[in-house]
Structure formats: structure tokens, C-alpha cells
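Worked example 4.2. Below are the chains of a multi-component assembly; read each line carefully before continuing.
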Amino acid sequence: EAGVVQSPRYKIIEKKQPVAFWCNPISGHNTLYWYLQNLGQGPELLIRYENEEAVDDSQLPKDRFSAERLKGVDSTLKIQPAELGDSAVYLCASSFGPDGETQYFGPGTRLLVL
Amino acid sequence: QKEVEQNSGPLSVPEGAIASLNCTYSDRGSQSFFWYRQYSGKSPELIMSIYSNGDKEDGRFTAQLNKASQYVSLLIRDSQPSDSATYLCAADGGGYNKLIFGAGTRLAVHP
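Applying the procedure described above to all two chains together yields the following C-alpha cells:
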């Protein structure tokens, strides 16, 4: 079974530039998560989708971050404009269902904003 | 603010010893608890999940949960150098599948 796929794996951009990350969850997983992980910290949830609906985006900085999950499968997370403090690893995870289900993580996108 | 607390380490143990990793959580409503292992530069991978008080064993790993004390632990028996990684404890956000992660404990197993 293929795992969660993310691209790109690495991205270097200058501040104020836009950037987008893509995630393809495990087949059949209805719940998709985007996490932010800073160095030396645990992942922090940005947004959670149940199928195509964003059911928890309370931690998403909506002034510069946006996300979508068209057709309830793949998802894209966008930052526009990027700031220096956005440098981090962006992790996508998926689970079969919403409650108590194991979340499986993708390899992450390591973002460096210069 | 729901929190999960872990000692950052590093926890250093000799090869073959038992490594004991501990975690406390603040939300009494949490029902699901997870231990993830994260190698440097890699993504978290699930080691154990536990939902009921008591012990749960899987190979060399044993997870322990005490809801009254809001305490979760992970024991690794016969520690190997390949177990050297950061171990993340996570608890669900009280009825929702919003995982709250601790900052992780770095484990170093030396030959």
C-alpha cells in the first residue's frame, strides 16, 4: 500500500514569494491533515479535512495561508506571501476516519524562506 | 490550552537496556494516545497506540496508560542503536481527532 505522498520535498524561496505544497493521502483515507513542525518541536495542526470539508482550521493563519481539498482526495496548502518565520517542515497526514484513528504521515516538505 | 509534556532529553541508555519514555497530558477528555518515532530529517511513524488504562505490548515496545494520573509511558526493551530517534507522544484533543503532540524526547542508544 502506498503511503502519503508529498511534493516538493524541499523548497527554498525568498520572503514575500508564494509557495504551494501538494499532498496525496493513502487511498481510502477520508481525513487529511496539514501540520507544521518547527525544529525541536512536535507537529502542530494547521487544518483538518473530512473529505472535501475543512472541519478544523482554527490554527491556520488565514491572512497568508490557504488550503483546499478538491474532490476529497489530493490537497494543496499555499502560503502567500511567505515570511521568514514560515521556515519549517510542513507535514501532511491522513487517517481512515476522524475519531481515534491512526494518522499516517507523509515525508514532509522542508521550507526555507530567505 | 491543551498540552502534552515530555522531557526533551537526550535520554542516553546502553545497548540492551530498557529505555523509559514518559509523557503527561493536560486534557482529561483525551481518549486516544499515540507514540510516534521520528528519525532526524524524517517524518513521524507510529510505534504504538493505546486507548485503555494499563499496559499494551508489541514486540520490544510496551505502552502504559494511567488516565487518573494523566500519564503515558513507552518502554523499549533490549534497546538497539537503531532505536536512537526522537519519540513523540500525542493525545487526542478531547473527543476530536486533533492530535496534540509533545515536543518529543530524544533517545540515544550507545553500543
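Take a moment to check your reading of the output against the notes. DSSP finds no helices and eleven strands in chain B. The mean pLDDT of chain B is 93.
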